[in-house]
Amino acid sequence: MTQSVSTSELFLSRQALIFLKAAETRNLSVTGQFFGLTQSAVSRAMIDWEKQWGCSLFDRTSRPISLTAEGKVLQQELNKQLEEFLNLAEEIKQKNRLKPILRIGCVESMSVDLLPQLIIRLKSKTKRLTTVIATSNSLYRQLREGQLDIIISSDPSAELSGLKQVLIFQEGSLIVLPKRFEGDPCCESWQGLQFCGIPFIKYHHATGGGKLNDVFFRSLGISLTNQLEVDSNSTMLSLIAEGVGWTISRVSTILQNKAYMDKIFFTKMPNPLLTRRLYILTRQSEPELLMEQVIKEVCDILKTKIYPQLISIAPWMEKDIFVLDPKKSIFSSSEQER
Question: For the whole model, what pTM was predicted?
Answer without folding.
Answer: 0.67
